[in-house]
Amino acid sequence: QVQLVESGGGLVQPGGSLRLSCVVSGVTLDHYGIGWFRQAPGKEREGVSCISSKEGRTLYADFVKGRFTISRDSAKNTVYLQMNSLEHEDTAVYYCAASAILGSTGAGSLVRHAYGYWGQGTQVTVSS
Fold first, then answer.
1. Which pLDDT tens digit goes with each residue over 37-96?
2. CA angle 33, 35, 41 (to 5 degrees)
3. Which of 13, 61, 112, 118 is the most exposed place for a label (fewest CB within 10 A)?
């Protein structure tokens, strides 16, 4: 049973930082691609960043490049999203997701339909 549990969200002022964590159980990160997505009220869920299974290659959406960093700790089976220079527009529920298909190929993708397993999400609110 694949389970993903996000944590680390909260309220932060513009320009601040947060680090989200995604603890994965039931599978190992060496075999699953992991992605971070977000969904703001009234908007579609969009890909933020992902990290591939085999080589740990990373991919970022243009709107977070230079501000967000994805990383993983294989010993803890945990993926992190370090978010710096947060903006009002980053306010959303953030989800982590796992993909067996991406895991088998070692590819990365920010397309939500490539992921079959999802966490419950953690709220990030950027407000002064």
1. 999 999 999 999 999 998 899 999 999 999 999 999 999 999 999 999 999 999 999 999
2. 155
3. 13
Q: What is the DSSP string of 49-97?
A: EEE-SSS--EEE-GGGTTTEEEEEETTTTEEEEEE-S--GGG-EEEEEE
CB 94 within 8 A of CB 126: no
Instruction: Give the pLDDT confidence of 100-117 residue by residue, as tens digits.
Output: 988 888 888 999 999 999
CA distance to 28, 94, 102, 109, per residue, from 9 (Å): 24, 8, 26, 23
Residue 6 CB neighbour total at 10 angstroms: 22
